[in-house]
Write a structure and sequence with these properties.
The chain is an alpha+beta fold. The protein has helices spanning 26-42, 48-79, 82-137, 160-172, 217-224, 230-236, and strands at 142-152, 177-180, 183-184, 191-194, 197-200, 203-205, 209-214, 240-251. The chain is elongated, with a radius of gyration of 59 Å. The chain starts with 25 loop residues before the first helix and ends in a 6-residue tail after the last strand.
Amino acid sequence: MSDTARPPEPEPEPTPEAEPTPEPESGARTSRRPLAQLTDMLRPRLTRGQLAGGLLSLVLGFAIVTQVQANSRDTKFATARQDELVGILSDLTQRSERLRGDLRDLESTKAGLERDARGQTALEEARRRADDYGLLAGTVPAQGPGVEIAVTDPRRAVRAANLLDALEELRDAGAEVVQIGDVRAGVDTYFVDRPEGVLADGRFLPPPYRILAIGDPHTMATALGIPGGVVRTLRGLGAEVTVTPRARMTVSAVRSG
């Protein structure tokens, strides 16, 4: 046997190859897409048209229910027995009578209020007239715009006729209330000359004379200052006369009766 001769070496056993991992089939991927599309289609989506349709359906349903109830009531009356209809009519009659009674009460209350209003108006009118008569009669004090006249008589030349002229001119100029000294002038006021001075309604008027007249100040002041008027006459007698308009003055003297 040669040195180079060797027994045959055993052949190596084949190594098992790894099996390839199976790739997912394309059919599995494609089967998922229709499912997702179906889910999207079933998902609720609210549009304006759907909202309007829902509201319309709601209104229509309410109208149908109302009509059904009305028909039910009509059917109830149509199918009611005679004694039931009599009872319903009696109840309606009683309600009508109560409403008529309430209406009568309201009308009575209204008439009472109107009478009270007329009575209050009449009372206020009576009070106003009483005040007017009181001012004319001189039985109540008075306030208002007017003039204040001061007459200083150093010569004692002023006579009863001069004071009467002053009163008449003031009345002609619109004087409503006049007070001379402490005497409230009235429709029957008179002046008399006496040795001690002038008397007005029996009361002594010492000089200087102070006259208060309520009325329009401008009209009365103009009337007193006309040529030939009482102011010129008094000044011609030596008296000093001042006429002062007042925005507001008070006549406090009153007549006893």
